[in-house]
Design brief:
Elements lengths: L1 H8 L2 H7 L22 E5 L2 E4 H19 L2 H6 L2 H28 L5 H9 L5 E2 L2 E2 L1 H10 L4 H23 L5 H11 L2 E9 L1 H5 L6 H10 L5 E2 L2 E10 L11 H10 L5 E2 L2 E9 L2 H12 L4 H8 L3 H4 L4 E5 L6 H5 L12 E3 L2 E11 L2 E2 L2 H34 L5 H7 L4 E2 L15 H8 L17 E3 L3 E11 L2 E2 L2 H33 L3 H8 L7 E4 L6 H8 L9 E6 L5 E10 L5 H30 L2 E3 L7
Antiparallel strand pairs: 1-2, 1-21, 3-4, 5-18, 5-20, 6-17, 7-14, 7-16, 8-13, 9-10, 9-12, 11-12, 15-16, 19-20
Subcellular location: Cell inner membrane
Protein name: Periplasmic chaperone PpiD
Family: Belongs to the PpiD chaperone family.
């Protein structure tokens, strides 16, 4: 129910007028957006000119917005002359509406100050980063929409005036509690119905269709029997993964790789250091003197080092590999366990370093890593062979463009062949987007529909590639009568059955309304089913609409009607009860607000319609020229 009201409140005219407000702000002065003075204008509204330049800019801005929203789909729309002319007329209509509202606002004395514009932009989330106005983001946004700062400023001023007018008229509307109650009861109403269904499928099975009827139906509905484009294709598939088992790797290859990549199979030399860090050189030198006299390095580190993290551990820094060792440590040139450095100056202070231990380089033996080296070499060689094969096959397919015979020879495999298929049922073996695009873009088919040429190498999934050739081609076209006769026959029978069901349903409806329902139902072999409770939905079906179109029943007399269900069956409806809806108290305030918004929209729409009706609008050449 609330969806219905939100849809009603989403008024089209108001959206057109106010839709750009959030994106129509600027901090600095107002530019000269109105470009007048030329005889080649788009329109004159009560003597105020809308120039060609103004219209062209509005059209371009709308194009930019649509392109952002629709992406590649917009290219197809932009190719339609009718669509682009409609877009142009809509843009001009928007300019006329805004001009009318601007003129009316001047009569009322409604204005917008520069400060209002500044305040509005600073509060707009779309132009903020971390809750702060971001000028770069603002400029990027409006430029992406096809606007400059100057014309955006003028547009913003007009839109804010329009907003003030809409708010002013909206505040003048109110909805009485009785209206809210009546509307909620109507929208939440529930209807109890029983149905009797004429089964179209069962009726169709009893129908007859003559050859002349079937032929006539086909002739009238040929465009409903279109055969899509069909192809038969030959292809050679190259698969890098499949080449792994065909790629030999010998002992010499393995040994050479092992010798060249020993760093991949072990751990380099590691060293373990301890350090004492001080703020000044004098403190460091005093500690160095104590160490020379036999002082305990770990105890001095705990007591004197300003590096609390290592100091707690007696200065221990743990094991370090060459790439993680500081240059100062390397330059200390400590070579034996227990050796201590002199005072060393660094960016973080002064320190004394001790080499605690050395763990020599360790390399796994070849036997332990042979399997992984073989796998790696196979992959590398398979990829090299794969790319080399691609090149050979590509050259052969290009040089012998009349068949795939030469490509088969260099590939060492026979081409595979498909049966007929369409773009909707691609064989799984070649169902890859790049392959499908190449097959159906027309480049592999000659002007007369005959095979044209072999494809280039088409890579898919990174490790697989194809070379293709179209062997046979059937263009899209109307299927011959003989091919679809059985299908058309069933359609004719179905149509006859639907017609009969509608006639029978109307007869039954007439009998029910005349009080002869029992006999009519018995004659039709039908009974009314159990009660169904029907409520309004956001997008009502034909059945729902017909249920709610029926007059309310009386205590002793139901209402009857006819509809169709989703299967195309004719349905006789018996409406026995109407239960008024009740709005939950928690939703009452929101419901009343949405009703008031709908009323405000209608008032504003009436204002805009009245302004259009009273205005003198003259269209110029630019209104049509593109």
């Amino acid at each position: 129910m609330m969806d219905n009201l939100r849809a009603a409140a989403n008024h089209v005219a108001l959206k057109i007028i106010l839709g750009l407000i959030v994106l129509s702000f600027v901090l600095t002065g107002v530019g000269n957006y109105l470009i007048g003075g030329s005889n080649d204008y788009a329109a004159k509204v009560n003597g105020q000119e809308i120039s060609r330049g103004q219209l062209e800019e509005a059209v371009q801005s709308q194009r930019s917005r649509l392109q952002q929203q629709l992406g590649d789909q917009f290219a197809a729309l932009a190719g339609s002359e009718g669509y682009m002319q409609q877009l142009r007329q809509q843009s001009l209509g928007n300019l006329i509406d805004v001009t009318l509202l601007e003129q009316y606002s001047k009569k009322l004395g409604v204005t917008v100050s520069d400060q209002q514009i500044k305040d509005a932009i600073l509060a707009t989330p779309q132009f903020q980063t971390n809750n702060q106005f971001d000028n770069a983001k603002y400029l990027q946004t409006i430029q992406g929409m096809g606007y400059t700062a100057d014309n955006f400023a003028q547009l913003m001023k007009r839109q804010l005036i329009s907003q003030q007018l809409a708010q002013a008229y909206g505040e003048s509307d109110f909805v009485l509690p009785a209206e809210t109650k009546a509307m909620s009861e109507l929208l939440l109403q529930e209807r109890e119905v029983h149905t009797a269904t004429f089964d179209t499928a069962a009726l169709a099975a009893k129908q007859q269709a003559s050859d002349s009827e079937v032929q006539a139906f086909y002739d009238q509905h040929k465009n409903g029997f279109i055969a899509p484009e069909q192809l038969k294709v030959s292809y050679i598939e190259m698969d890098a993964t499949a080449m792994l088992n065909k790629t030999p790797v010998n002992d010499a290859d393995v040994s050479a790789y092992y010798d060249q990549h020993k760093n991949e199979f072990g751990q380099p030399e590691r060293r373990r250091y301890s350090v004492i860090v001080t703020k000044d050189q004098a403190s460091a030198q005093a500690i160095a003197d104590q160490l020379k006299k036999g002082g305990d390095f770990a105890q001095l580190a705990k007591a004197k080092s300003i590096d609390s993290l290592s100091g707690k551990k007696g200065g221990d820094l743990g094991w370090m590999e060459p790439e993680t060792t500081l240059p100062e440590f390397k330059n200390a040139n400590l070579t034996s366990k227990g050796q201590t450095s002199d005072v060393i100056k660094s960016d973080s202070g002064f320190f004394i370093l001790r080499l605690n231990d050395i763990m020599p380089e360790q390399v796994k033996p070849l036997a332990a890593v042979r399997s992984s080296i073989v796998d790696k070499l196979k992959q590398e060689k398979a990829l090299d062979a794969y790319y080399a094969l691609q090149q050979k096959v590509s050259d052969a397919a290009s040089n012998d463009n009349e068949s795939l015979a030469s490509a088969e020879q260099v590939a060492g495999i026979k081409a595979s062949h498909t049966d007929w298929f369409t773009e909707q049922n691609i064989p799984a073996a070649i169902n890859f987007k790049p392959v499908v695009q190449a097959l159906f873009d027309g480049s592999l088919i000659g002007h007369d529909g005959a095979p044209s040429s072999n494809s280039d190498v088409i890579t898919v999934d990174g490790d697989r590639a194809f070379v293709l050739r179209v062997n046979e081609h059937k263009p899209a076209g109307i299927k011959p009568f003989a091919e679809v006769k059985a299908q058309v026959t069933e359609l004719v029978k179905r149509q006859k059955a639907e017609d009969q069901a509608r006639v029978d349903a109307q007869k039954l409806l007439t009998a029910l309304q005349a009080g002869k329902g029992d006999d009519a139902l018995k004659a039709a072999g039908l009974i009314f089913g159990d009660v169904q409770k029907v409520q309004r939905s956001a997008r009502p079906s034909d059945f729902e609409q017909n249920v709610y179109a029926l007059p309310q029943p009386t205590a002793d007399k139901p209402s009857y009607g006819v509809s169709q269900d989703a299967k195309g069956n004719s349905v006789v409806i018996k409406l026995t009860a109407v239960n008024q809806g009740k709005l939950p108290e928690a939703e009452a305030a929101q419901f009343n607000q949405e009703l008031q918004q709908t009323s405000s929209n209608n008032t504003f729409d009436a204002l805009l319609g009245n302004l259009r009706q009273q205005a003198k609008i003259k269209f110029g050449n630019a209104a049509q020229n593109q």
